[in-house]
Amino acid sequence: MRILITGGAGFLGSHLCERLLDEGHEVICLDNFFTGSRDNIINLLPNPRFELIRHDVIDPFKAEVDRIYNLACPASPPHYQYNAIKTIKTSVMGAINVLGLAKRTRARAFQASTSEVYGDPEVHPQSESYWGHVNPIGIRSCYDEGKRVAETLFFDYHRQNNVDVRVVRIFNTYGPRMRPDDGRVVSNFIVQALRGHNLTIYGDGSQTRSFCYVDDLIEGFVRLMETEGVSSPVNIGNPSEFTMLQLAELVVKKVGGNSKITFHPLPSDDPKQRCPDITLAKKLLGWEPKVPLEEGIERTIAYFKKTLGL
Ligand code: NAD
Ligand code: UDP
């Protein structure tokens, strides 16, 4: 198949490009390089089945394709808050452009949605039937509401124009090719520990997240895209839940060194808990994560050690 991946030069996108090329597909990677980089996909450039296009998804684009994975959107809070208006334009206009293309080409369209659609959840763990608890006017809203509108557009194009759609709700995912300055918690803690700096916990560290290793997530993406008859968004994530304090302690233990754990103000609207209910993914896709946190953290530490030359 010929497959378009928007945001293909980012953390998740680059792993997806690699996986789909390995399966023998043609891959078109479209990216504006806001948070992604050529380094992430440099090894793929010599492959004749790989094409790289510098383009912004808020502007329409044309290509004859069979599948579209729409990943374009900054994912780390500091990056998506850097230009909040641009972030919401990317999610909303990006979705409209992807869906317009899917309608014309009859391609199947896949949206990288997020556990952020559940906001600061009052239901725990979160299953797909939960509608969420989202602040519409806070500092995270450009991302959360942008992704919620994108989901709405995907299902409206499906109902109104018969576009074949898949929507994945991704829970916190980590691994090699995160940027050292990404700003998300796993990369922050590992890079801080490797550099011998203190680890920065926001708040008292009792908030929870559930961390999925990138290889597990990509397997879930491909299964969801290629499974017939899926009519609902699907959570993909690792249901093992940890506090940020537990994560900091694990990273310090694995890296070694003398880093201390320090506490800093909690950003507003920071969700207190987050854990996926993956019953649907298990049932529909036969998918569940395989890489436990300790092992994934070890692999990610090895990546950052090499990248940072430490
Ligand atoms: P990332 O920031 O590494 O990747 C995003 C990519 O999109 C980058 O290559 C960036 O340059 C590109 N991009 C941003 N705006 C664009 C635009 N207007 N036009 C074209 N390209 C643009 O982040 P990631 O972790 O790889 O996330 C990929 C997708 O998965 C995002 O849509 C994100 O919202 C979603 N997601 C990720 C996680 C996670 O834990 N990694 C969790 C939930 C959702
Ligand atoms: N966090 C932290 N220290 C950091 C970066 C993040 O304690 O250096 C916290 C953050 O406040 C949040 C959790 O870790 O409670 C996960 O943050 P991240 O930005 O990785 O993802 P998200 O909040 O979008 O789930």
Task: Provide a descriptive summary of the structure in words.
This protein is α/β, with parallel strands linked by helices and 310 residues long. The chain has a domain at 2-173 and 212-238 and 276-291: Rossmann fold, CATH 3.40.50.720. The protein contains ten helices and 13 strands. α6 runs parallel beside α8, α6 (185-194) packs across α10 and α8 packs across α10 (293-308). It is globular, with a radius of gyration of 19 Å. It starts with a strand and ends with a helix. 45% of the residues are buried. The mean pLDDT is 97. The structure holds nicotinamide-adenine-dinucleotide (NAD) and uridine-5'-diphosphate.
Summarize the structure.
By secondary structure, the chain is of the alpha/beta class. Helices cover 40% and strands 17% of the residues. The longest helix is centred in the first third of the chain and has 22 residues, at 84-105.
